[in-house]
């Protein structure tokens, strides 16, 4: 992992892959949520005069590749899970985001929609994605930011403290919104821009929230997670404590939308949220 010691690893990458393998058969049920985020991210393509022909879709779970092809692009998709990679159709590769197999300057667009938050070496992965871009190529990514699923995190911690006398990590730690620009700069992207976005989802049945997370491959893959079977009362107590509005349970996605360009000899000064009118 780019020289990272075991003590520095936050996520269990094998668990991430297994969750994605299992979710390949069910991810279609969460396509509306994934598509909503992807469409908001890809709206940024309409802010630029630059035209893209070859795109890399990182972990798009069958949604991003279709949207990019609809814009007339040739798309290569990759995913840590071979089964999930196949969901994208077209050219698909099973690849670890931390050890990408693509040659330098292979693509003029890279899109990572809700797919980098289980990566241990995120700066290293971003460097590899930047290197895969041609000069003046565009990188777009959406990342769950701090506050995402905050209602569920708080409810699980309180419930576990109540029924088990302590709490273990059950929701992924997310980066702070302000970390985004620094990550892009550290990875060598030019004209970095980070926008905040927010999506509120309401569920009639709180169990549907857990089912959606499982169906999307978003099971708990934190290395320090408690691997024992949770107390039977844990989830009923936690779900009953989730805040409700109009008899529905609320779940919030707080998103960091990242934009960066692969450096080129002459790049314009920032004029738009993309960093420049291209």
How many discrete domains?
A: 1
Strand content: 15-25%
Calculate the mean pLDDT score and round it: 87
Rg, nearest Å: 19 Å
Low-confidence runs of at least 5 consecutive residues = none
The succession of helices and strands, N to C, reads HHEHEHEEHEHHEHHEE
CATH superfamily: Vaccinia Virus protein VP39
Largest beta sheet, briefly? 8 strands, mixed
What spatial form do the alpha-carbon principal axes imply? Answer: globular
Structural class comes to alpha/beta
Helix content: 25-40%
**Count of discrete alpha- or pi-helical segments spanning 4 or more residues:** 9
CATH hierarchy: architecture: 3-Layer(aba) Sandwich
CATH class: Alpha Beta
**Quaternary assembly:** single chain
Q: How far do the termini sit from each other?
A: 35 Å
In the CATH hierarchy, the third-tier topology is known as: Rossmann fold
What's the total number of strands? 8
Could you name the key traits of this structure?
alpha/beta, Rossmann fold, single chain, globular, 278 residues
What do these coordinates show?
The mean pLDDT is 87. The protein has one domain: 3-Layer(aba) Sandwich (Rossmann fold). Strands 1, 2, 3, 4, 5, 6, 7 and 8 form an eight-stranded mixed beta sheet that branches. The protein has helices spanning 13-23, 31-42, 64-70, 82-87, 122-132, 150-164, 179-186, 207-215, 234-241, and strands at 54-58, 74-79, 91-94, 107-113, 133-144, 190-203, 244-245, 248-261. It has nine helices and eight strands. Helix 6 (150-164) packs across helix 9. It is an alpha/beta fold.
């Amino acid at each position: 992992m780019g020289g990272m010691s075991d003590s520095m690893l936050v996520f269990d990458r094998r668990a991430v892959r297994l969750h994605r393998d299992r979710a390949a058969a069910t991810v279609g049920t969460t396509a509306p949520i994934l598509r909503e985020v992807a469409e908001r991210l890809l709206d940024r393509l309409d802010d630029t005069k630059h035209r893209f022909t070859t795109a890399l879709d990182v972990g798009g779970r069958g949604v991003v590749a279709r949207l990019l092809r609809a814009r007339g692009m040739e798309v290569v998709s990759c995913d840590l899970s071979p089964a999930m990679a196949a969901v994208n159709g077209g050219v698909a590769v099973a690849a670890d985001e931390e050890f990408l197999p693509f040659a330098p300057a292979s693509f003029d667009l890279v899109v990572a929609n809700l797919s980098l938050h289980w990566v241990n070496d995120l700066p290293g992965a971003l460097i590899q994605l930047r290197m895969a871009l041609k000069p003046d190529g565009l990188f777009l990514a959406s990342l769950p930011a701090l506050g995402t699923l905050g209602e569920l995190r708080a409810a699980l911690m309180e419930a576990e403290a109540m029924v088990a006398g302590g709490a273990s990590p059950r929701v992924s730690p997310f980066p702070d919104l302000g970390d985004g620009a620094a990550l892009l700069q550290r990875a060598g992207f030019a004209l970095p821009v980070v926008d905040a976005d927010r999506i509120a989802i309401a569920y009639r049945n709180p169990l549907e929230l857990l089912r959606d997370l499982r169906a999307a491959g978003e099971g708990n893959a934190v290395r320090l997670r408690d691997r024992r079977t949770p107390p039977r009362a844990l989830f009923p107590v936690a779900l009953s404590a989730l805040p409700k509005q109009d008899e529905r349970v609320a779940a919030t996605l707080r998103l960091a939308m990242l934009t960066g360009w692969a450096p080129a000899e002459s790049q314009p000064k920032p004029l738009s949220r993309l960093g420049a009118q291209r």
